[in-house]
Amino acid sequence: MNMKKEWFSTSNIFSAVLIIFAAAMVISPQVKGWTIQNLMKIGLFQPRIDKIQNDNKAAEPLPNILFKDDSGDIVDLTSLKGKVVFINFWATWCPPCIAEMPSINALHDRFGRNENVVFLMVDVDGNFEKSNNFMKQHQYNLNVVSSVSAIPTFFMQGTIPTTVILDKDGGIVFRQEGAADYSNPKLVNMITEMIR
């Protein structure tokens, strides 16, 4: 009887719950993504707005990068000059990508109808069926593309998620590796200023 009391103590139950949660975070990208999303809600994983400067722009003109949508239509990055371009490199199996997706969708809901803003959600796996199913399942209004040409390292160095924002001149004004909360008011204000 005494052994039962010790086995079902509050401390043991709490430890068991923590172990199960830690195992779920290792096994399930959705659980890890959910955890990161909730940490975003308390102020963690904010984009590094303070590092946005005009001197962060690419020194040379942007290379001609081509993207393809699930219909096979080609999007030429240089044809988007004159628009603010939000590019996110992501994958369905990536927990930080899953975590930041609601905030990207909220940003898209805010600016997606503006003809001066373009969102390119680049699925690094190029699996349109899987990525489009992910978007439908979560009711995101984000269109998926894949890269047809090589991605320069000043855009993405292999880390996902990576987000790049280009100004109307095609200069990189923002680059973030890792998850971030893109519903951040400072980022929203930055895009608002850029489209004026």
TrEMBL record:
Signal peptide: none annotated. Pfam families: Redoxin. One of its GO terms (molecular function) is oxidoreductase activity. InterPro entries: Redoxin, Thioredoxin-like_sf, Thioredoxin_domain, Thioredoxin_ResA/DsbE_sf. Residues 56-196 form the Thioredoxin domain. CDD domains: TlpA_like_family. PANTHER family: THIOL:DISULFIDE INTERCHANGE PROTEIN DSBE (PTHR42852), THIOREDOXIN-LIKE PROTEIN HI_1115 (PTHR42852:SF17). This is TlpA family protein disulfide reductase. It comes from Dyadobacter frigoris.
